[in-house]
Amino acid sequence: MSSKQTQVKEPLIRMVKRGSISQQKAWGIRAAAFLLSLVTGGLLILVLGHNPLSVYKAMVIGAWGSRTVIHETVKLAVPLLITAIGISFAFKMKFWNIGAEGQILVGAVAAGAFGLFTAHIFPKIPLVILMLLAGMAAGGLYGLLPAICKAKWGTNETLFTLMLNYIALAFIKYLMNGPWKAPGSSFPKIAMLVQGARLKKVLGVHWGWILALILVVLAFIYFNKTKQGYEIAVVGQSNNTARYAGINVSKVFIRTMFLSGALCGLVGMLQFAGADYTITEGTAGGVGFTAITVAWLAKMNPFGMLIVSVFIAMLERGSNTIQTNFKIPASASDLLIGIILFFMLGCEFFITYRLIFRGKEEQHA
Amino acid sequence: MLSTLNSLFIAAVLAGTPLLLGALGEILTEKSGNMNLGVEGMMFMGAITGLAGSYYYEQAIAKSGGSPSGALSAVIALLVSFIAGAFGALIYAFLTISLRANQNVTGLTLTIFGTGFGNFFGEFIGQKAGGYVAVSGTTKAAFSRMHIPVLSDIPIIGKLLFEYNWLVYFAVILALLMAWFFNKSRVGLNLRAVGEDPATADAAGINITKYKYIATVVGGGICGIGGMYMSMVTTSGVWVHGCVSGYGWLAVALVIFATWRPAKGMLVALIFGGLTIMRMYVNIPGLPAQIYDMLPYVATIVVLVVTSMRESKEHAQPKSCGLNYFREER
Amino acid sequence: MSETTEYAVKMHHVTKTFGKVVANMDVDLELKNGEILALLGENGSGKTTLMNMLSGIYFPDHGEISIHGKQVTIRSPRDAFGLGIGMIHQHFKLVDVLTAAENIVLGLDGKATLNRKEVNKKVAEIASRYGFEIDPSKKIYNMAVSEKQTVEILKVLYRGADILILDEPTAVLTPQETEKLFAVLRNMKKDGKSIIIITHKLHEVLSISDRVAILRKGEYIGAVETDKTNQAELTEMMVGRPVSLEIERPQQERGIERLQVIDLTCLNGEGVKALDNVSFSAYGGEILGVAGIAGSGQKELCEAIAGLYPAIGGSVLYAGELNGEPIKERILGLKPDEIVKKGISMAFVPEDRLGMGLVAGMDMTDNVMLRSYKDKKGLFVDRKTPREVAEQLIEELEIVTPGVDTPVGRLSGGNVQKVLLGREIALSPSVLIVAYPVRGLDINSSYRIYDLLNEQKKKGVAVIFIGEDLDVLIELSDRLMVLCGGKVSGIVDPRTVTKEDIGLMMIHVEDEQISPEGGNEINGAGQDAGEKKDENPKEEAGV
After folding, report:
1. Quick one: closest CA in C to A236, which residue?
2. Can you tell me the distance from the alpha carbon of B194 to that of C393, in angstroms, rounded to the nearest whole number?
């Protein structure tokens, strides 16, 4: 037997949990992942026969190049940011609310009920307040439904909230075709909000953006400084611990989901009264899904969400430009967002773990 | 009346098949302990690649002056869509199994990515084709209903059971195969153990990583085929923007409805298929068409709530579903 | 062919680290053919890690392993099976929804289709050879703990293992079941199998093993022949210094009846009674021990009293003072926060420390305020006071942590328990319920915990101590209640009772002794289980 020379064969790669890692290094890893995702997207563009650099450049210019496009970009960022904040309420307690899309739609419908049919009764300011409250209440109630079932029976909220999206969508189609169909229109569509009831513009964009910035600060304080924020964090980490601490888990579920849905409903109202002036199947337009990635990338930090939502709004706005300039379909933004998120999700692993390759053993003091 | 019922049944089978395929893929995935919410994305990827595969095959043959074969075109669509779905699942598998990313978020990202992928390439190929992508009549014929000698000629039953396109039979056979696999085979038993309790399966000498990867990737491939059904059969070989929209999620819901059992999935898919097309066959006066559209989603919610109200130990989600496994975690 | 060797297993210079934690450092271990080797060491000394490397769960950083004289590489449990090594883990590795037979054949190669009949037959065959009783087609979730252990052992035997490793196999067994297991192990030894048994119970080491190998803090200390050693020597090798393993039981005047539990009845998830008419009282200034095999209703008992588990019958009365006035409150059915609102200070250290008692991902400050964040009025939380409390705890209890901002999940088991118990004691409770407070802790930490409990007892707190180690329960408690299948099978005086008697009570309840016709209270003392007592508790032992 020649056992002397048989070195114990290690597996090729092993992973070991890191003790701790400096913030600097962690951000370095994230930055590298982000760059890699852009490179991957660039390769895709290259395969399609375009120069990635000029496409990226066109995207940036398309989003920030002129006053008009900046307004457009901000207009895209506002719903994304508020929805992301709304979703993070639920996500912080590990309640997978992927029904923001539906909550936005019902918020828009509720605001529309006042905006379209009572504009001749109320003066502007009470009307806007009514629309605001109605939108938030509707979104909140729509979010409440799955929360109650989850609290009572542990019903899977992921699918529940998701199904509510499609129900809200079908409901809007119904309104468009039937009761709310604009008089005199041959197409199924809902009438426009009268000029006098539309949200005022501040620096070129409806005031929703100011509200969004205020919400960023408020949400940060709520999460980190209040008792309710603390309760959400405990529930998110462990339902059992929460019960043990005397936290009424059902109540927290219900309260928090109402807030989450209400913020999404608010987005519906803003879209209706500030951006589109009408309600269509596209009022939510995938914001509810994209916002999930915004919230996750920002690790539920409202200030982080501000940055990420502006970035994603830039991608979306920019992809419109490359559609006209390069004939690259605008769905490219979804594709690119997907790629970036894949990389960001993956890179967290390298922050938590270290790889050891065969033969490279570490010395431990 | 009877003929309405017959045609409702046939339409339900046709509409339920992509749901069944999606659900079968997800059952296989979840049995390994991976909850992949990217079914919708993978179906989109399968839908566009399947269509593109047939389309480019026809173009290539046409360019060289030959005439395309329908059967070959169908096989290409099948393979390509499987590979595309499997590719999507592979990204998911790599991120969740090897890199331990959160399963929910990774799945959702896959849905965003896949939806973008489908719509992007759908439009892109359409642009190049001068407007929209559509396959030729030959391929269309390959995906239309078959006439099986003798069987199809049986009165009534022949029409009800033996005159579908080949993908319907493919899905049924797959469901039966999977039922056998989970209940009777050794590998199926091992896979169930992986999904229930990976630490135990690991200690029993089962290669967790391998099982999870294979189940997830093959499951994704099956979802991809389900997507291909949407673009080749449901929309008759023409790319329609957002054609899968919602079906992938219904398939995920169907898994719960079927209590993770492939054979039961056939029945459930039939019911869901029926709900999605009911408005064209059953007319209740005063009920607008859009309200019908809500039915499958409302039904899903009802089922979700009802199943959560009564807990069952055995016919439930695999216990480790949604959680990643790391052997040396301390 | 290689020469035959007398050693079944040889581990040489084996080292394993997890991050910065060194679990095993340069360990040598030898197992002779056909012997029973006890692997002795404190909790956290690296016994399980070492054995996990033998069974392929972990892979060593350095070192060599030979099996029957041949150097081998064990990269997975599958490799280990191939070498005839089988491990019975402390936390059973069984799939709940599968049958015994399905669990046994899990992961094995063979024909594509599984012939269940054939497997069942073969399992029954092996079972009868060693004297096990088992129904191969019974599902695991319907099984009692000892049955599950049988399945684990059969699983290893089915795979033809000749080297068996058992990790703390007696922790979940009654003394009688332990004897039965040891008989089976001796049978196997006769059959030529080599066995390693991991334990930290010295008397078991002495009764079953041929040799003892000792680990301390991840290092190999040495091996001795069992019949040439004694408890004191083994302890010293295990702890590193001579220690008295006596647990103090300070004499103490018994205080008022703090907690009276009457006919408490709860259902478990399957609708079976988890607690069945449980009645007892807890007094200030005493430690009431609770014994029973795992799953006899201990968890439900603690949680029902703490307001975390629903009861279908009975009541729980609390006696105490509020602003100087004596109060008596019914607390059953109240939520934890409602109990606090009544001015009742009851502390509870649950079994699942990081899953229930603490939030693993939060730092010490946020964990300390878990039970008190509602105290102050207003919308915002106050982190200043809890932070001070946390810093105080670190100092007083010598908690080893990088700082108050470190998530508690990163701390070692003993320190986690100190944070939890420290927080609960900081509430200055009048009733303190602790469930398995020393599980997984090393001897030093364990004794620190016993001291803390005794301190509380001296302060007049009514302590309810749920334990699993009968020796500890007998030494520490003032009275000892034994649970069996959700019923109280007796409350005895630990000074006079024997372990065997308790063992019998753990598996057997005599029904008539349970519900005395007069009162609902059982204050049984003395050796006789459930002996009826009059209302005057002063006569009891310990006064």
Report:
1. C359
2. 42
Domain boundaries, chain B: 2-309
User: Which residues in chain C are contacts of B211 at CB distance < 8 A?
Assistant: none
A272 in any annotated domain = yes
Look at A246 and C340 and tell me if their CB atoms are within 8 Å: yes
**Residues near C157 by Cβ (< 8 Å), separated by ≥ 6?**
C86, C126, C130
CA nearest to C20 within chain A: A19
A-B C-beta contacts closer than 8 Å: 140
Q: How many CA atoms lie within 13 A of C298 on its CB side?
A: 25
Q: Are C472 and C386 in a shared domain?
A: yes
Q: What is the pLDDT of residue C479?
A: 95
Residues of C in contact with A6 (CB under 8 A): 71
- What pairing do the DSSP bridges indicate for beta strands C7-18 and A13-17? unpaired
pLDDT in tens, C88-105: 988 888 998 999 999 999
Rounded to an integer, what distance in angstroms lies between the CA atom of residue B40 and that of residue A205? 35
Domain containing residue A149: 76-309
Which of B 98-137 lie inside 8 A of A, CB atoms?
98-102, 104-106, 108-117, 119-120, 123-124, 127
- Are B73 and B63 in contact by the 8 Å Cβ rule? The answer is no
Decide if B313 touches C, using CB distance below 8 A.
yes
DSSP C468-502: S-HHHHHHH-SEEEEEETTEEEEEE-TTT--HHHH
Considering the domain architecture, whether residues C125 and C14 belong to the same structural domain is answered as yes
CATH number, residue C299: 3.40.50.300
Residue in B185, B186, B199 nearest the CB of C93: B199
DSSP secondary structure letters along A90-152 = HHHTT-----HHHHHHHHHHHHHHHHHHSTTTS-HHHHHHHHHHHHHHHHHHHHHHHHHHHHH
Count the domains in chain C: 2
Q: Which chains touch B (3 or more CB pairs under 8 A)?
A: A, C
Q: Is residue C293 domain-shared with residue C235, that is, in the same domain?
A: no
| Interchain proximity C357–A241, CB inside 8 Å | yes
Torsion (CA) C27, C32, C38, C43 in degrees, nearest 10: 20
Question: What tens digit of pLDDT does each residue of C409-462 get?
Answer: 888 788 899 999 999 999 889 999 999 998 878 777 888 899 999 999 999 999
Residue A273 lies in a domain: yes
Predicted confidence band of residue A6 (pLDDT cuts 50, 70, 90): very low
Range of the domain at C13: 7-239
- The class level of CATH for B2-309 reads mainly alpha
- C342 and C198 housed in the same domain: no
Instruction: Answer yes or no: is C315 within a domain.
Output: no
Q: Is residue A249 part of a domain?
A: yes
pTM: 0.86
A299: left (phi over 0), alpha (psi -120 to 50) or beta: left
- Per-residue tens of pLDDT for chain B, all 330 residues: 678 888 899 999 999 999 999 999 999 999 999 999 999 999 999 999 999 999 999 999 999 988 889 899 999 999 999 999 999 999 999 999 999 998 988 998 999 999 999 999 999 999 888 888 899 888 898 898 888 888 888 888 888 888 899 999 999 999 999 999 999 999 999 999 999 999 899 888 899 999 999 999 999 999 999 999 999 999 999 999 888 888 998 999 899 889 899 999 999 999 999 988 888 887 777 778 888 888 888 988 998 888 888 766 667 788 888 888 877 654
ipTM here: 0.89
Cα C179 to Cα A257: distance, rounded to the nearest angstrom: 55
Q: Are C479 and C492 in contact (CB under 8 A)?
A: yes
In a domain, C528, yes or no: no
Q: What phi, psi does C540 have (nearest 5°)?
A: -70, 160
Distances (CA, A) of C345 to A71, A213, B193, C311, C357: 59, 44, 45, 21, 16
Q: Assess whether C291 and C234 both reside in one domain.
A: no
